[in-house]
């Protein structure tokens, strides 16, 4: 059986291109950066919950407060690298892996 190609399907990248422009344009790069911040907040929340910790418990372990953890998880706060490392190492007992894609 031959697989038919559906020409009416739009990829997510095509939708982003239409709404924000192609990668490299200012508006698209802003969107990409905001998405990465959002994604980090989700990853932090998932890791915290996997360990059975509340925001308050995580905050106490890494020397910050519950509202700061909440703001990070809800994409409402910039985070310093030193604070990020404290949250990951001291608070979650984890390690940070970064990738760079120039």
Commentary on this structure:
- By secondary structure, this protein is an all-alpha fold.
- The chain has a single domain, classed as lambda repressor-like DNA-binding domains (434 Repressor (Amino-terminal Domain)), CATH 1.10.260.
- It is built from 5 helices and no strands.
- The protein has helices spanning 12-20, 26-50, 55-62, 66-73, 81-91.
- Helix 3 (55-62) packs across helix 4 and helix 3 (55-62) crosses helix 5.
- It is elongated.
- The termini are far apart.
- The mean pLDDT is 90.
For this entry, give a set of tags.
102 residues; mainly alpha; 434 Repressor (Amino-terminal Domain); 60% helix; 0% strand
Q: Given the C-alpha coordinates, what overall shape results?
A: elongated
Rg on CA atoms, Å: 18 Å
* Residues in β-strands, percent: under 5%
CATH architecture: Orthogonal Bundle
Number of domains: 1
Task: Give the uncertain stretches in residue-range form.
Answer: none
Give the number of helices.
5
> Which series of helices and strands comes N to C?
HHHHH
Number of strands: 0
Q: What is the share of helical residues? A: 55-70%
Can you tell me the CATH superfamily?
lambda repressor-like DNA-binding domains
Question: What top-tier CATH class fits best?
Answer: Mainly Alpha
Strand pairing plus helix content: what structural class?
A: mainly alpha
